[in-house]
Amino acid sequence: MESAKGSKRESKRKRSHSKSTGKTKTKTKRSKKSKEVETPQSSLQPPSTSTSTSSSLTVAQISEDVLTQLALKFWASGSSEEGVSYNAKLIEDVYETEIVGTNHALKRIVLLELSQYLENYLWPNFDAVSSTKAHLMSIAVLVNEKFREGVSAWESFIGRPEQFPGFFQRILSACVDEDDDFSFKEHSILMLFLVNCFKSLEVDIIREQIQRLVSLSIWTNLLPSRLEQELKSDTKLKKYWSALKKRDAKADEKTRAKQGKERKFLWNLIQKFLGVVMSIPESGAIDEEKLNYCNRFVELLIDLESMLPTRRFFNTLLDDSHLVIKCRMSPLSRRVEGKLFNQLLDILKFYTGFEINDRTGLALTDHDMTDIHYNSITSLQRAAFVHFKELETFALSTVASVDPRPALRKHFGALPARTLHKIAAHLNLLPEPEPMSDEDEYDKEFILEMLVSRHEKRLSQIEALNEMPIYPTDEILWDENVVPSEYYSGDGCLALPKLNLQFLTLHDYLLRNLNLFRLESTYEIRQDIEDVVKRMKPWTMNDGSTGFKGWARMAQPIAKFAVVEVAKPNIGENRPSRVRADVTLTLGVRPEIKEEWQALRRRDVLFLITCRMPSSRDADQDGSFKEKYGIAYVRGCEVEGMLNQEGKLIEDNPFEDRPEVPGDKRTFRIRLDTNQYQQDMAATLKGAEDVYETFNILMRRKPKENNFKAILETIRELMNTDCVVPDWIHDVFLGYGSPDASHYSKLPAYIPTLDWNDTFLSIDHLRACFPGHDVKCSVDDPVPPFRLTIPRVKDASKPELIVESYQLTNRGPYPYDQPRRNAIPFTPTQIEAIKSGMQPGLTLVVGPPGTGKTDVAVQIISNIYHNFPNQRTLIVTHSNQALNQLFEKILALDIEERHLLRLGHGEEDLLTEKDFSRYGRVNFILGKRLELLEEVQRLQVSLGVPGDVAYTCETSTHFFTYQVLGRWEKFVHKLKQNKDEDVGVIAKEFPFKKFFENAPQPLFKGVSYEEDFDIAKGCFTHIKTMFTQIDAFRAFELLRRGQDRTNYMLVKEAKIIAMTCTHAALKRHELVRLGFTYDNVLMEESAQVLEVETFIPLMLQKPEDGVSRLKRVILIGDHHQLPPVVQNMAFQKFSNMEQSLFTRFVRLGVPTVQLDAQGRSRPSLCQLYGWRYRALGNLPHVYRWPEFMTANAGFFFDYQLINVEDFKGVGESQPNPHFYQNLAEAEYVVAVYMFMRLQGYPAEKISILTTYNGQKHLIRDIISKRCSKNPCFGFPSRVSTVDRFQGQQNDYVLLSLVRTKAVGHIRDVRRLIVAMSRARLGLYVFARASLFQNCYELSPVFSLLLQRPLQLHLAPDEMYPTQRESDVELTCQPFVVGDMSHMANYVHQLYYKRIGDRQSTQISPPPEEQQTGTATSKPSQEEEEKEEGAEKASRDDDENDVSAPAAENDEDEEE
């Protein structure tokens, strides 16, 4: 969020933009007749050798740039000289001058990438044989840039795939080049290119080349004895190896040479890397490019090791090279500059020893790892006993006594290097030593470390996880390699885990997500700490201590801190079981702030900070924040409660007011992290300072942002349990096997016959929904509801579909007994989505904007409810708003209220008076029970039965069994004796006539025997349903405590349970403890949910006999819209944390159902975003309903791009860093809004959107000054950012794109799609047309927008609502608005012409005549809080959600 504490995710690099971009040219043909054009060397002089991008290029500068001129001439779409041929020297000149000559300046590379240099010139003209090094490297540079920008990189390669194998071979040759033709900078670029290739295994042309590099054949590089050992351990591999050798023998010389090159590539690359690492001296100057190359190479190795297909054989090769040990002993690892290198090595070492069977891919348990360790040690002991008498003591010792590292070094350290070499050779780790040589070729310390590291006892991954402190500390908070700053440019290497397509095991999956979620929370915490410390203004007092001149709402100086309890460790642990402390504050602040501090509740997270402000002469003004402000320590803690005057905890009671504590001093009892405390005390014993005697600041955070600890503990708990994913989804979840293995068509649990209930409106509707099927009906002209049988037949040209119509059971004579019916005419693709969701398995539904995703979800839920009444369905969404929309539609279907439950905050926003929370449902059931018992009483009276049978549910059940049921059976018996089927007998003998006197009369029609008998059965069904509910409510009589009743409601009674993904993460432990179970999961907005937050809802129950009872997983979302919010750019770009599970499944090729007809927007508006989806059409109602058929009053067009030039020479501005504003656009947008209000448009039908928070604040300021106090205008429905408005819509949208120097983050096509799809009837885009029109990613949209005039065309005489149809053109001359000032003046005049003379309210003059419309800086702390309060009602997030941070995803893409 762009707040007073600083922009969170804006990039410091500005994206240049070339005017020459346009549509991609697929191929450039060479012609002998075309003229050769020489490019003068002088025309390509680099503007600067600096790589700085501190200022953005203007459109004019871009137009004048030499690269733009070259693009226009040679490769831009519609280039000026059509006959110009391919010029190889041009590529050489561009590479040497614009890339190498500028030291790979980002601006120059961005400009080349934006001009489509790769798509239109480099790749179409690449030849694997003749193309130069510059050509090769230029392609690699631009592919890397596309990955950095987050745009598609392989599309142009896919268009010309025949050249890719040759290109890739050239890349491989360059990577292992021994002739020094490539600099280390270029080698780093090549390493990054390979990293990006391994990230793209879903692309066929990439996967085909990569597989050859990591196949079994790479074992030709192994030590012969090691190879024999590995093949002996796996008979299958031995067979494959023999077959491989036979194929090699039959291959020709050329093929063998090519294969040999591929097989030796990784081995040669490793050897080259080791040579580079060892060439770096331990002291003195260091070559930065060498260092970058080393870091990039280790990153590549980590990527190879962290995916099963690439590590299966490579892990053995890497182990045989002993790379990790050699790197650990290299001089670089001992240098300060090697910090990142060492952190990357730690990750690599972790993955080389990961707990997985490399061959089978099965996860290894702690028991398996222990067995492997013991076998390794005992085999070494046997070898030592037989062959090395010097190790007799070692050989005869117990494993536990020799496997610690010190013991191993003691036993082996005394041996000479040659003996150690012999031991290593015996273990197939090294070749046999030369028999004639006295000097050993290997260093003794290296061999010793190799033996020790292979055999030492390691801490298991679970033990290491459980010993990890949960709160971030000062060491992590400001480590740029782990938690990079907000200005991460995307071109550096970091020591972070990555979320890609595949994971090794569930443990690996959870561990990566745990680390990233923890670090993302750390980033947010760091920003909060920096904000409060700055506000408190620490200073150094005369005695050297630190005082505070300022104040912060979220932090207070600590008056006293003391640890009051350190409990004994639990059995088997060495950390304390509990550590408590008391922290005292003096709250001499405003009453409302004091109340906020006193409102701290149990489990709220606080942070203890030690700030030692250095004196002005000692302060490093250029250092990090930590050094500048002297942040010595940061520790997290959890509130237990506030203490009263007697030092006792004040209990939290939501139903009672807290007792008043006099004075300003407040003491809080807190719990410290026991793992962290144990580590700190261990350091103190070694002479370090006692951290817990130094704290001087206590910081709190907003509850909404502060649930990270609960979520991290949930993930850690999952990792400590037997995490069971259903077998049918396990492999697909990890990214292996056939992508369609979890589809219903592939699963044995396929159900051919299902009740489709009210899905179809008629038999014609059904036939239309199954085109290509042979529909067979059991009766002529069947009417719904239908039961369908769809046999599973493979490869049937016209599959058979059997339709069975059935009569719904008569539920009773009252109107409310009639079932609620679906009225939506679903489309064929919607029906396919519903069909897939009803079947067991994994269902992915891609729902473009306005295609009825929610309606499909609700129908799936309803059909599952009616087909499988004993199954329970869990509904999960990202936001409360989406959950409420889903729930409101569920209420409209035929589902019993008592089976619905809504968990978490937000149920109060439901548009119903009913309360669906746990306590609300319990109250509903108790109230319903009383109503039903009253009905029982009435039935008793009507039957003349004495006594109080309606006293309890139990007595009522007895009454039904012994009194009601007998009368019904007697009645049925009499009817059976009525041979003539006399109609009058039914009305005469029916025993419950008196009870149904309040039903619509006459009860029996007397027309036919069958009709009256059906009515009688319906009446008894009503009575039976009544007693069935009473019996279900009996438990609520027996349970007296409210908590027990709510738990019973959750665990037993509810069939459809809804919650947000964050609530699921927060409450998992409680749900599992209560025995919560469910059979189906349906997740809406799943493309907006983080990977792990999609996974946790699948794990909210204990497995039954080691098997998950989960039968269906239904994910509904749209990966073409914005992804999950990730605040830190490094986690978003480098770690790919923004990838949702839904998006990953789509990338893997899991079958999806894409809804293909939208009903939100006019067909013309749909074109602006429909291009992104496959065959997106329109629902019939958008051609029929009056609102879509009527034109936009006062406008010539239903959508238009309005070009906005600078106002007084200023376009975009930044009153604060990265707080983008554009005054001209803001004034223009507000003027058009005022015009619309004067034309009669309702304010609630208009929303104003923008792509930046700064512009949002500016527009709000202008509206406040011009419109808020005038009832003729007022506020629009929403003024928001595009990101925040995802999932919402309005009739008319005014969109401001803000930027005038660089395209900015609207270049992310997902954000563009959201922006274009929010309007139903009218969209008016305000932007600098010359900047956006040539951007390749935006071209599908702007090519449409540019077909209409760039000046706003109005028809002021046409008032809202108009009768003009949308396809009827206005005959009058348009009022063409010249610019913003013209529009502002016109609105000012129009107001006084129409309204001003009839009321006293005045409006502010246009911007030229006054100074109110000036750019604003970021809001202050108080303004932010006031604004947050005002927006609270419209927020989508759960009050307890931390997964959806308050900060919007308004980051600027790297420029």
Describe this structure in words.
The chain has 1455 residues and is α/β, with parallel strands linked by helices. Helices cover 42% and strands 10% of the residues. Helix 21 packs antiparallel against helix 23 (444-455), helix 26 (506-536) runs antiparallel to helix 30 (708-720) and helix 46 packs antiparallel against helix 50. Residues 1-57, 1410-1414 and 1425-1455 have low confidence and may be disordered.
Looking at the chains present, what oligomeric state does this protein adopt? single chain
| Rg | 36 Å
SS summary, helix count: 54
> Biggest sheet, open or closed, and with what strands and sense?
7 strands, parallel
In total, the number of strands is: 30
Low-confidence stretches: 1-57, 1410-1414, 1425-1455
Order of strands across the main sheet: 15-16-14-17-18-13-19
**Whole-Å distance between the termini?**
20 Å
What is the arithmetic mean of pLDDT? 87
Helix residue percentage: 40-55%
Q: In one word, what is the shape?
A: globular
Quick synopsis:
With 1455 residues, the chain is an alpha/beta fold. Helix content is 42%, strand content 10%. It has 54 helices and 30 strands.
Write the topology of this structure:
Elements: H1 59-64, H2 66-74, H3 88-100, H4 106-114, H5 117-122, H6 133-149, H7 155-158, H8 164-175, H9 184-198, H10 204-213, H11 224-232, H12 235-250, H13 253-278, H14 288-305, H15 308-321, H16 323-328, H17 339-352, H18 366-387, H19 392-396, H20 399-402, H21 405-413, H22 417-426, H23 444-455, H24 461-466, H25 474-477, H26 506-536, E1 538-540, E2 546-548, E3 555-566, E4 579-586, H27 591-598, E5 605-611, H28 625-629, E6 631-642, E7 665-672, H29 674-685, E8 697-700, H30 708-720, H31 727-734, E9 753-755, H32 763-769, E10 774-777, E11 786-789, E12 800-805, H33 828-838, E13 841-846, H34 853-867, E14 873-877, H35 880-891, E15 900-902, H36 918-943, H37 953-977, H38 983-989, H39 1009-1032, H40 1034-1038, H41 1042-1053, E16 1056-1060, H42 1061-1074, E17 1080-1083, H43 1091-1095, E18 1112-1117, H44 1129-1133, H45 1141-1148, E19 1153-1154, E20 1157-1158, H46 1163-1170, E21 1177-1178, H47 1186-1189, E22 1199-1203, E23 1212-1213, E24 1221-1222, H48 1223-1239, E25 1246-1250, H49 1253-1266, E26 1278-1281, E27 1290-1296, H50 1309-1316, E28 1319-1327, H51 1329-1332, H52 1339-1345, ...
Parallel strand pairs: 10-12, 13-18, 13-19, 14-16, 14-17, 15-16, 17-18, 20-21, 22-28, 25-26, 25-27, 27-28
Antiparallel strand pairs: 1-2, 3-4, 3-8, 4-7, 5-6, 5-8, 6-7, 9-11, 11-12, 23-24, 29-30
Helix pairs in contact: 3-6, 4-6, 6-9, 9-14, 14-17, 21-23, 22-23, 26-30, 30-42, 33-34, 34-35, 36-39, 36-41, 37-39, 38-39, 46-50, 48-49, 48-53
